[in-house]
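Message: I would love a firmer grasp of how sequence relates to backbone shape in proteins. Thank you; the sequence and its tokens follow:
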Amino acid sequence: MMWYQGYVDLPPPYEATLPLLLNQRSPFHLPIQRLPFILSLPNIRVSFSSSSNTSPTFSPLLLPFRFLTKIMVKGPGLYTDIGKRTRDLLFKDYQNDHKFTITTQTSTGVEITSTGVRKGELYLADISTKLKNKNITSDIKVDTNSSLRTTITVDEPAPGLKAIFSFIFPDQKSGKVELQYLHEYAGISTSIGLTANPIVNFSGVVGNNLVAVGTDLSFDTASGNFTKYNAGLNITHADLIASLTLNDKGDTLNASYYHIVSPLTNTAVGAELSHNFSSNENSLTIGTQHALDPLTQLKARVNNYGLASALIQHDWNPRTRFSLVGEVDTGAIGKSAKVGLAVALKP
């Protein structure tokens, strides 16, 4: 196993969360496979700067250089970040289809990704190309429906700003321009359709890395009505995240909870409770995840309707991931279980 050795600047909330990094600017040993998890922790960003190579002074399992790791608070993020950790835990990668993805890169830096999906008796496929030139990323995707989706992203045209232009051919009404702005105490995203009577979207969050409150609005200029208005609250403290959102024009209340049990094994638990006021229906989903080893992760979830799912992901190498999903209806054991398979290759 390969290890990193270096130093870390750690904000106070994570001193209690990461026992391997208890003291600020203390030396640490970190398995290379743990870096993606550290990068994924909420409200932090990790950047690396390495010095010139020096003679190896550590065991052969250590890299022959030292680096400085800085973990910095990002602020409240965007509205879509409210409850995102719980949603990823409970719903991300759970799919009952068969999916195969292969990604290659040309000598000129163009990344080409081909995807094939089998949904029952239906077969779907798409191919996309991605090219990054300085701070501009162009992504073009063609699918089996003869649709061509183009997305152009400009990162940091000004500090904290991101511009996104997208459209789908031949849908002439699909053009959209979006601006995102991230600040230490605010996050704003606004978009407008490129039509005569566009739909205008706005979402904003104010707060910090501990408490954030925001809203998400959509306004139809053709009818003069709001087609969406949501609100959300996010609270982050040490190893837990609690979120509360009011969606569907105030008709649905969602409460979610995410708790980091063990950072070293990427063990976490989460739950989401939803109440619909018009139908007076409730739904509850709880789930957990745990890393068996640095390359293998397990996830499981169950909801109040009796649907139980399990997921195992294994990285054969940093560029190849295998995922297997199973779902069973505990209220009807006689029914066949649903099985999903996904393979992602990056030769």
User: Anything to note?
Assistant: The two ends are 21 Å apart (CA to CA).
